[in-house]
Amino acid sequence: MARSTGPILATAAITVVNRSVLNDKDIDWRIILGTGVAAVGLALLEKASEGFAVGLAWLTLVTTLFVKVDPTVPPPAESLLRVVKF
Is the C-alpha dihedral spanning 36, 39, 42, 44 positive or negative? Predict the structure, then answer.
């Protein structure tokens, strides 16, 4: 497995859990399909430039935590703070 696969799969898992569990929306299957395409693409990119592909995967994960993907769903960090009530 490529080093970039873990962060990309974690990004998808966080996005799906945020959308379906924390905000009671339907699962958007395009997220899962897009994750598969991104994982394969980054694995291929890793053959040419490993550091860039892994860095891009981690940047994607961190960005997903704090930025809205869907305008009707708050970002995962905000949703988690609302659930935990800090």
Answer: negative
How confident is the model over 10-56, as pLDDT tens digits?
A: 999 999 999 999 999 999 999 999 999 999 999 999 999 999 999 99
What sections of the chain are H helices per DSSP?
5-17, 29-48, 50-66, 76-84
Cα-based angle 78, 57, 12 (whole degrees, multiple of 5): 50
Domains of the chain, residue spans = 5-84
For 80, phi then psi, to 5°, come to -70, -40
| Tokens describing residue 11 | 């990004």
